[in-house]
């Protein structure tokens, strides 16, 4: 299988040499992620992929993570296959900690928080997304902590974009799925206003996996002389039932994947999530430069109930985030060539409060109340130097301070609190730095070489430090910052109708922050050093005016370089493969315009086998099996109407991409099966 996958990957590269002369819309040269300002990227030393609005319309993907999984270097782990709830996105092979090592932005502002709740992907329906920018490799100079594997920036639609003044959309599909959405835009010479509302209801593939999601967003833009003022408001509300895992234990004759694949292990568990956010940005051109003064606020309430076999845990977590991110870009007269400097200041403040009780009725008198404040302050400077039309260099530095204070108020007299404990108050102050240096050299007008070296970092969040000791008492376990060194070489080939990129990368990680299930306690730790090495191939080819082809192949070798995890018994992990990182991943797709208004798109995705979560020693003897999934989409446009039909998992494969090994029973593991063949139809009316 490995040989056939590699052969297909080589064929992807070779196909680019047969290009026709039609322009590929995906090769948009203007992005914001590479410099935090709108700028060209095709002449800069960055590994950048842009998913355009046309790519989104053609894809059979239903969610942003589904769309991202089609790209090189990105692996997703989906627990339920239910509108991307509980889905993690991993860039360049970090496994279960991929969410903390892949920085997610919305319109340039981070939405990652100081907890482990993850990104609320369903709060960003694809209908509201204009494009997605993926910048691979360490991005800590411009974006700070957490940008280790890279940065993914979701750009929402502007009221100045789009084919009309509004749209109405409805979708129905398998598992009782019903979705409706409406958008409206008003545009004048100076003012643009956009509104979007979306509602989803689905029963889910699994028992006890109903999902109710409502999102709303408003975007107001005012054009000034040489600039723009923008205000964005958004709200999202979700109610989700949690079915738990399917258990497999051969020694006990248990295999719920075979006997009751869609059943629920936790029929009483559920979660709710309510979020609000607002951002204000003023962008202005001044002389030979630009500046952007931006600020933001987000709030998030998370409610969860876990029955734990009659020993319930009910939690209410509230989080407020403030941000202030001014930056500027200018082109001073300096020796060596044409310089472009970007400098900025980032300030983020998180205020976190968690209440724990044994029921909804008793949450007013919680037995644990955790209060935590975190503040990150960073300054950065990046210089891009165009030495000649062929040679571009860049270099950047960042310094960031991290401060966290946490308390745990314990009430033994509260209901359910008799056998608990409170953690002593704690605080942590850290500072870290990042750097990068890159080069891009155009060998010919169509072939360029790219090289980069960088240092990135991340800090532990509140959920990673509030854990249980070996004697099962609560404590704040402050951890060392994680650091990583990056090295990358790439080649890019581009013509009017075809594009191909090949990249080799290496990431050496020190003090990786991770759950340590082998120690006598239950907590998180700084892991021994590890290394990620890989090859990424990407290709797009407009073969004819009607037919476009694309492909993406990723080879990733993620291993621990040395070390032993404490027991009992101790586990030697030197040379072992990092769990949840497939060695091979391949996506091939085609889009055929049968007529001017009718298009058929197909995507075939292969993911290789993976070691399960919590199997750092690679000793379970069972892996997550490799799988191949095929998706089809047929769309037809007639006037203002667009009709679409989608079939996901066409060949009805039974698969899963997340499983976790038991900490206590040698051959037991829990898996999270994903939907078999499912379908949906949608209709959209655009008001012009």
Brief write-up:
The chain is mainly beta and 688 residues long. The chain is built from seven helices and 42 strands.
Helix fraction, binned, reads under 10%
- The tally of structural domains comes to 1
What is the CA-CA span between the terminal residues?
Answer: 50 Å
The profile of the biggest β sheet is:
23 strands, antiparallel
Mean pLDDT: 91
By DSSP (H or I, 4+ residues per run), the number of helices equals 7
CATH architecture: Beta Barrel
Provide the CATH superfamily: TonB-dependent receptor, beta-barrel domain
Beta-strand segment tally? 42
What name does the CATH topology carry? Maltoporin, Chain A
Relative strand content: over 45%
Key features of this structure:
Maltoporin, Chain A, disordered N terminus, 5-stranded mixed sheet, 688 residues, mainly beta, 6% helix
Description of the molecule:
It is a single chain. The chain has 688 residues and is mostly beta strands. The chain has a single domain (2-687), classed as Maltoporin, Chain A, CATH 2.40.170.20. It contains 7 helices and 42 strands. β17 and β18 (289-306) form a beta hairpin. The protein starts with a helix and ends with a strand. Residues 1-28 have low confidence and may be disordered.
Secondary-structure map with pairings?
Layout: H1 2-15, E1 30-31, E2 39-40, E3 47-51, H2 53-58, H3 64-68, E4 74-78, E5 87-91, H4 98-101, E6 102-106, E7 109-110, E8 129-136, H5 140-143, E9 150-156, E10 166-173, E11 177-187, E12 191-202, E13 211-224, E14 227-241, E15 246-249, E16 254-255, H6 256-259, E17 270-286, E18 289-306, E19 313-324, E20 327-330, E21 338-357, E22 368-386, E23 391-410, E24 426-442, E25 447-458, H7 462-465, E26 466-468, E27 474-476, E28 482-494, E29 498-510, E30 513-516, E31 523-526, E32 530-542, E33 547-560, E34 564-565, E35 571-572, E36 584-593, E37 598-607, E38 627-638, E39 641-648, E40 659-661, E41 669-671, E42 678-687
Parallel strand pairs: 6-9
Antiparallel strand pairs: 1-2, 3-8, 4-5, 6-7, 8-9, 10-11, 10-42, 11-12, 12-13, 13-14, 14-17, 15-16, 15-41, 17-18, 18-19, 18-20, 19-21, 20-21, 21-22, 22-23, 23-24, 24-25, 25-28, 26-27, 28-29, 29-32, 30-31, 32-33, 33-36, 34-35, 36-37, 37-38, 38-39, 39-42, 40-41
